Amino acid sequence: KLDSQSEDASHGILGAPSKYDQEANKPTDKIQRRLAQNREAARKSRLRKKAYVQQLESSRLKLMQLEQELERARHQGMYIGGGLDSNHMGFSGSVNSGITTFE
To answer: Where does this protein have coiled-coil stretches (predicted)?
Structure first.
């Protein structure tokens, strides 16, 4: 008789979902929602990082172009004017050391 009661009890648990079963699914739903939000946040973070890296690369290329233009202007000044005074040379030295920091 005890065996039949335990079988009936187990069938009751496996039957229609009870209020307890629905509440037990709520944490799972919360976990799934949180995981989805985390995935979306990670995706957005990757996109922001990609945009930032592209912006850095663009800035680096612009800096290289400016450095080349400055170097050309210096060479033209040396050929046309016969050279630069010591103040300009000191300034150009500090610019070059700063520029190499970016590379």
So the answer is: 49-76
Q: pTM higher than 0.85 for the full model?
A: no
Amino acid 101 reads T
Q: What is the percent of the chain with per-residue pLDDT over 70, rounded to a whole number? A: 54
What is the Cα 18 distance to its own chain's centre?
Answer: 45
Q: Using CA atoms, how far apart are residues 64 and 56, in angstroms rounded to an integer? A: 12
Task: Answer positive or negative: Cα dihedral of 63, 68, 73, 78.
Answer: positive
Q: What is the pLDDT of residue 22?
A: 66
Under 8 Å between Cβ of 66 and 92: no
Residues 6-26: tens digit of each pLDDT: 555 445 445 556 666 666 677
Contact yes or no for 84/77 (Cβ under 8 A) = yes
